[in-house]
Amino acid sequence: MGYPVDTSYSVVMTGVTLYGIFAILFMNFFARTYLLPTKPMQILSDINHNHYKGVVKKCQ
Question: Does pTM top 0.70 for this prediction?
Fold first, then answer.
C-alpha cells in the first residue's frame, strides 16, 4: 500500500462516474424488467382478437 501510480485524478473520477452511471442504468432496467408488475401488451391482445383481419388481407 502506498505505491505511486501514474494515473491522474481526472481519469479516475471519469472512470468512477462512468461505472456509477452504468450501475444506475442497470438497476433501472432490472427493476422495470423483473420487479415491477406490468400489464400485457395491447398490440398482442389486438392481434389475438383479429381486429385487423382486413388489414392483413390487404397486405398479402
Answer: no
